[in-house]
Amino acid sequence: MPLQLYYDNLSPPSRVVRILVKEIGLDVEEKQVNLMAGDHMKPEFLAINPFHCVPTLVDDGYALWESRSIITYLVDKFAPGHSLYPTDLQKRATVNRWLHWDSGTFYASLNAYYVPLFYGKPYQPASLESFKKAATALDDSLKNTKYVAGDELSVADIPITVTLTLATAIGIDTGELKNVEKWLKQVETDLKPSTWKTLVIDPANALRDLLKAISSKSS
Ligand SMILES: N[C@@H](CCC(=O)N[C@@H](CS)C(=O)NCC(=O)O)C(=O)O
User: Fold this and answer.
1) 111 lines ligand 1 (CB under 6 A)
2) Is the beta carbon of 54 within 6 A of some atom in ligand 1?
3) Which atom of ligand 1 is closest in space to residue 33's alpha carbon?
């Protein structure tokens, strides 16, 4: 049975998984879940994922959600030993640390900044401040390493790239973060051809356009 990936193209964590899938050359059956149309609350999707979120992976009847769990599962199962997810315990712990940092701090603050728009509320300036602080800490760390978790591209670079490029797309100025800028250029070069445009930049701009449309309707 092929792997199935439930995703929405505008969902940043869905893009994280789709980028990884392309990086390790996996064949997955992609199943679009249109969040704006409420597909995620339909009984057939709730039967797969009662937490009703995308991305959700189904591997031979086993359903897994949480993008960062999915990407590490996929490397471990289908590309074991790949440098994207090192097996050395301390290197792996460092990669995991960045994955958790993105999930709990970096992307969390960006999410808290813009997601209220979907519920008729404005952008949240306090969350923007948290995001900027975290981005500065990332920039400081990138003074010392080529990639976020060391000198090799890892799975941790994927969600952090998605977070940062979305921030830029929605108008957050990160221009003063010179180490971040250099790292992003490196990641752009390293990812598989066309990933940067189709899974990083274009969908971030599409989400930007949707947010613009929502905020102009409510003002
Ligand atoms: N931490 C989760 C976040 C998943 C998430 O919140 N996905 C959103 C789309 S970006 C979603 O499915 N929202 C609908 C819902 O939760 O009901 C991950 O990284 O996968």
Assistant:
1) no
2) yes
3) 12
Residues 6+ apart with CB under 8 A from 1: 60, 61
pLDDT at 188 over 80: yes
Name which residue sits closest to atom 14 of ligand 1, judged by CA. Answer: 53
- In whole angstroms, what is the distance from residue 198 CA to residue 210 CA? 17
DSSP assignment of 59-116 equals ETTEEEESHHHHHHHHHHHHSTT-TTS--SHHHHHHHHHHHHHIIIIIHHHHHHHHGG
Which atom in ligand 1 lies closest to the alpha carbon of residue 67?
Answer: 20
Domains of the chain: 3-78 (3.40.30.10), 89-218 (1.20.1050.10)
Catalytic residue among 11, 67, 103, 154: 11
Q: Is 52 in the pocket of ligand 1 (CB under 6 A)?
A: yes
- Tens of pLDDT, residues 64-117: 999 999 999 999 999 999 999 999 999 999 999 999 999 999 999 999 999 999
In angstroms and rounded to an integer, the radius of gyration of the C-alpha atoms of the chain is: 17
Mean local confidence (pLDDT), 184-190? 98
- CB of 5 closer than 6 angstroms to any ligand 1 atom: no
Copy the structure tokens of residue 167.
């921030």
Is 11 part of the annotated catalytic residue set? yes
Name the percent of the chain in helix, strand, coil, to the closest 5. Answer: 60, 10, 30
CB 20 within 8 A of CB 5: no
Dig out the tokens for 29 from the structure. 């059956």
